[in-house]
Specification:
Length: 243
């Protein structure tokens, strides 16, 4: 978003945690992917907040709102994402995507980590380079969907932590756990599903762009993420989304 169009000036960032209206506006722009935290490191920006400070503010706002409230905010003038094959989640362990990718990126202190190196770290089975590479790629891409890392291509693909991922890493485990369903809503396909009233036929339509054999594998992954929200709801013993 161009600085001239962005509502986030110094005054906005300074008051966003105190003003409900500004908090809701941040949520709208964050979830529709209009808020680019990386732009806050641009020397030509018009506000004084950097991407790391802004990331901490975003996470603080998300802590204050329930999933039910977030979905209600997003329902107003919601425009469903157009889902392509690359947008449909594929992973073996969601915990690896959510916790371990971030931990390795920060703890290693390295940049431009390759898919095979990431897979080598994540997998606890006999080593095979091709399997490590695919595992690292799949789980890094989900972490990227969650905003935790970026993936660039030079001579090879390189995975790097984002300021948002760094801010998430610094949170206590309990806060990370509570944020999980809210951050899952950032994934376009999951957001489409919940904001549109958990419409199974629309979900099936999005999956139909894949081959029949791939649909079976990817549907399981999508259902796993959906169940993260549903299971937390059941655990807390309250009505739909109210957690």
């Amino acid at each position: 978003m161009d600085c001239k169009e962005c509502p986030f000036d110094d005054s906005f960032w300074n008051s966003v945690l105190e003003t409900n209206e500004n908090s809701e506006e941040l949520i709208r722009l964050y979830y529709n992917h209009s808020l680019s935290l990386s732009c806050l490191d641009n020397n030509l920006k018009l506000c004084g907040v950097d991407s790391l400070a802004a990331s901490k503010i975003v996470l603080s706002v998300l802590e204050r709102f329930t999933c039910h409230q977030i979905i209600d905010i997003l329902k107003n003038n919601f425009k469903p994402y157009e889902i392509k094959a690359k947008d449909i989640p594929q992973f073996s362990s969601f915990d690896d995507c959510y916790y371990k990718v971030v931990e390795y990126l920060v703890d290693s202190g390295m940049s431009d980590i390759s898919y095979d190196k990431m897979g080598y770290f994540l997998r606890e089975v006999p080593r095979k380079l091709d399997a490590d590479k695919k595992y690292g790629e799949n789980h890094a891409k989900i972490a990227c969907m969650l905003g935790f890392c970026s993936i660039t291509r030079k001579s090879t693909f390189g995975i790097n932590i984002t300021p948002f991922g760094q801010s998430f890493y610094e949170l206590e485990k309990e806060k990370k756990d509570k944020l999980m369903p809210k951050l899952c809503l950032f994934i376009p396909m999951i957001q489409n599903y919940f904001v549109q009233g958990m419409n199974q036929s629309k979900l099936d339509e999005e999956l139909s762009i894949l081959s029949p054999s791939t649909i079976i594998r990817r549907r399981s992954n999508v259902n796993t993420i959906i169940s993260i929200i549903s299971l937390i709801q059941k655990f807390l013993k309250i009505q739909t989304f109210n957690y």
